[in-house]
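thread: overnight batch results

M.L. [08:02]
morning all. the overnight job finished for the chain we discussed friday. pasting input first so we're all looking at the same thing
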Amino acid sequence: MKLRPIPALVVVALMLAGALWQPHDPDAIDLAHRHAPNSWAHWLGTDQFGRDLLSRLMVGGWRTAIVLVCVAAIGMVGGSLFGILAAMLGGWRGGAILRAAEMFIVVPTLIVALTAAAIFGLSPLTAGVALGLAGVGPYTLFAHALAQRLLGQPYVQAARALGVGGLPLVLRHVVPNMAPVLFAHIGSNGGLAVTAYASLAFLGLGADPSRPDWGAMLFEYRMFLFDHPMLMVWPGLAIAVVAAVLNASFDAD
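M.L. [08:03]
and the structure it wrote out:
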């Protein structure tokens, strides 16, 4: 299995860079230049209020990057820890962890995110935490299956016979061999998180619908689909490219 994380890291870094700099104020209204075409002043043109489309895409990018970071940190790290712990403990204690993880799978991910958005308001942080928590269950079961298989390998049994156990065994023999498969899994889940957050923003669940999230932009610009289709194309393309890069970067050959 060959991982290619550099493209994904570059894309996420570019998305986060949008928090530090944009060529124009993304909320600045200039009705004299509404629906302006591509130019040196506005690389992707402007929308119906004369706002720079590239700047709005960049702001939406770093907000989406926050969601991705939260999903990876909570879903992958938390789920992996619980899965490995369940495999190491075994018996009724490991079974209890797995039963708790299954409870996260019963409720669909989007329902968890919708509930969090309704209670706390939609923001990149709340959406990332909600989507990350929803991913803990699947990751726990996935990591448990991987860890259990690795713990049965001859080299792990030999290490145990030599007195290696607990955390040293996990860090030396289990985690390094699990990491490539887990990263392949997070690539597909990261793409799903991007589309899930865009879907929530498209539904208008944000506390501040005026924020230029990619999904919110698709909702706002939908009425210009036929007259100015590029307003819909750019945020849709951004969602598709990020999801595709994450899948391709961590996919198995």
